[in-house]
């Protein structure tokens, strides 16, 4: 970043120098041209006021030899007759000069009393400025001088400009290094103290950036801790049934149980194997839900029809505990993945049955509220304490750990429900009263 700032500062300085040099040269050259034209005009007027050309013309064209003594440094003086014939030129033998009637400044002088023009010599890199003045006798006096072109001026000034550029670029590099160091120091300090939420950034413009970075940093740390906790919980949850299965298998292997206890041991092995299978299945399901980029088969489906199918599949599980299942509501169309919606309702029903009381009731109701399809699953179970409502959707979190394990719960059901709801942009609300029951509402 520092290097980029230095390069850009140097580039800006370079552009500024070149632009300024060219601009100033053009301005001053324009002023210079104006001054040259003004000097030519004044010289022409002074020459006319001497009456030398008037007298020479009155005395006859032959007397133009009397003008030979005229010399004015770089000023060229040309006297032209009304027909364009050159009567006198202090720089060139008039015998070799062509008719000057076609010269722009001469034509303007005959038309307007005065005229001027500029002609460029590419070979000499010089501009010739002309000024012509009409005399009372009908002849034209023209004066001219040469001056360097603007390109020539710029070329001459290039060494000076190059020297200035080098000096300023060196200054820019030095200043840029100091400035970038001062600019970057607060940012580097902020990066080093990212965990310090009380530290205010040196630049007000960095506050939203700092808040965003801190938020992302906290989220990353939270996610890392969540994965670490999840790994630890998975290890612990898997270890329990595996240890039980291994222990019972060791008893059978060493013939330490009698025939009457074999049925119980076999039942315990099957129970722990089922629990292990449920854990693995739920973990795989959560892993798939975590990968949001996986393709989902969204389609139009009737939420009430799917809910009724799920209720019918859980009748046997409910009847084993004398729990009554009730499904009611109206047709509600949603755009969703049928498999995931069934998984969500199945988990809600299993929780409602698992944590219910003997001879309890589970009500599943589908409705449309303010244009939003909704499904609620309400039970008459043990309920959830108010201080634990925010945690029931955490992975492996159980309100009643012993009861959950006894009934085959993995502690991942509501976590799966939450993930599926998020994938469908649905909202979850939970209402519960201890010893009276719980209602979970999913609003699409």
Key terms for this structure?
3 domains, 444 residues, five-stranded antiparallel beta sheet, Helix Hairpins, Heat Shock Protein 90, alpha+beta, 53% helix, five-stranded mixed beta sheet, 18% strand
Question: TL;DR?
Answer:
By secondary structure, this protein is an alpha+beta fold. Helix content is 53%, strand content 18%.
Would you kindly provide a written description of the structure presented here, covering whatever features stand out?
With about 450 residues, the protein is of the alpha+beta class. It has three domains: about 150 residues, Beta-Lactamase (2-Layer Sandwich), CATH 3.30.450.20; about 100 residues, Signal transduction histidine kinase, dimerisation/phosphotransfer (DHp) domain (Helix Hairpins, Orthogonal Bundle), CATH 1.10.287; about 150 residues, Histidine kinase-like ATPase, C-terminal domain (Heat Shock Protein 90, 2-Layer Sandwich). The protein is built from eleven helices and twelve strands. The strands form three sheets. Strands 2-1-5-4-3 form a five-stranded antiparallel beta sheet. β1 and β2 form a beta hairpin.
From the 3D coordinates, which CATH architecture of the largest domain would you assign? 2-Layer Sandwich
Continuous helix count? 11
Strand order of the largest sheet: 2-1-5-4-3
Main CATH class of the largest domain = Alpha Beta
DSSP, total strands: 12
Task: Give unreliable regions as ranges.
Answer: none
List SSEs in N-to-C order. Answer: HHEEHEEEHHHEHHEEHEEHHEE
Provide the number of structural domains. Answer: 3
Instruction: Let me know the CATH homologous superfamily of the largest domain.
Output: PAS domain
Q: Provide the residue-averaged pLDDT.
A: 81
Task: Summarize the amount of helix as a percent range.
Answer: 40-55%
* Computed structural class: alpha+beta
Radius of gyration: 50 Å
Q: Shape, please?
A: rod-shaped
- Report the sheet with the most strands, covering strand number, pairing sense and barrel closure: 5 strands, antiparallel
Work out the strand percent: 15-25%
CATH topology of the largest domain: Beta-Lactamase
């Amino acid at each position: 970043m520092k290097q980029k700032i230095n390069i850009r500062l140097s580039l800006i300085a370079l552009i500024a120098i070149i632009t300024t040099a060219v601009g100033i040269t053009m301005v001053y050259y324009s002023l210079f041209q104006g001054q040259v034209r003004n000097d030519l005009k004044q010289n022409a007027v002074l020459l006319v006021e001497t009456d030398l050309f008037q007298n020479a013309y009155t005395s006859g064209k032959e007397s133009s030899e009397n003008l030979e003594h005229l010399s004015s440094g770089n000023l060229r003086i040309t006297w032209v007759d009304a027909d364009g014939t050159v009567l006198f030129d202090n720089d060139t033998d008039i015998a070799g000069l062509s008719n000057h009637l076609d010269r722009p400044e001469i034509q303007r002088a005959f038309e307007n009393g005065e005229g001027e023009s500029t002609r460029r010599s590419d070979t000499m890199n010089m501009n010739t400025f002309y000024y012509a003045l009409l005399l009372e006798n009908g002849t034209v006096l023209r004066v001219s001088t040469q001056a360097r072109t603007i390109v020539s001026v710029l070329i001459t000034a290039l060494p000076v400009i190059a020297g200035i550029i080098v000096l300023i670029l060196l200054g820019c590099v030095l200043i840029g290094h100091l400035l970038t160091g001062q600019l970057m120091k607060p940012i580097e300090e902020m990066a080093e103290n990212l965990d310090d939420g009380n530290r205010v950034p040196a630049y007000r413009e960095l506050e939203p950036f700092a808040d965003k970075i801190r938020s992302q940093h906290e989220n990353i740390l939270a996610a890392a801790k969540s994965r670490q906790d999840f790994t630890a919980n998975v290890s612990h949850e898997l270890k329990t049934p595996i240890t039980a299965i291994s222990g019972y298998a060791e008893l059978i292997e060493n013939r330490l149980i009698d025939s009457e206890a074999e049925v119980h041991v076999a039942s315990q092995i099957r129970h722990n194997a089922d629990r292990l299978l449920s854990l693995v299945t739920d973990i795989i399901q959560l892993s798939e839900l975590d990968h949001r980029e996986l393709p989902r088969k969204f389609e139009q489906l009737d939420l009430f029809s799917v809910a009724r199918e799920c209720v019918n599949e859980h009748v046997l599980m409910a009847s084993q505990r004398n729990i009554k299942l009730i499904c009611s509501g109206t047709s509600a169309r949603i755009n969703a993945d049928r498999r995931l919606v069934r998984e969500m309702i199945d988990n809600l029903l299993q929780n409602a049955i698992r944590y219910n009381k003997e001879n309890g009731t589970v009500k599943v109701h589908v409705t449309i509220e303010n244009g939003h399809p909704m499904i609620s699953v309400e039970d008459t179970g043990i309920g959830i304490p108010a201080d634990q409502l925010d945690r029931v959707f955490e992975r492996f979190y159980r309100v009643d750990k012993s009861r959950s394990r006894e009934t085959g719960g993995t502690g991942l059901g509501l976590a799966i429900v939450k993930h599926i709801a998020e994938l469908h942009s649905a909202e979850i609300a939970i209402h519960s009263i201890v010893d009276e029951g719980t209602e979970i509402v999913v609003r699409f």
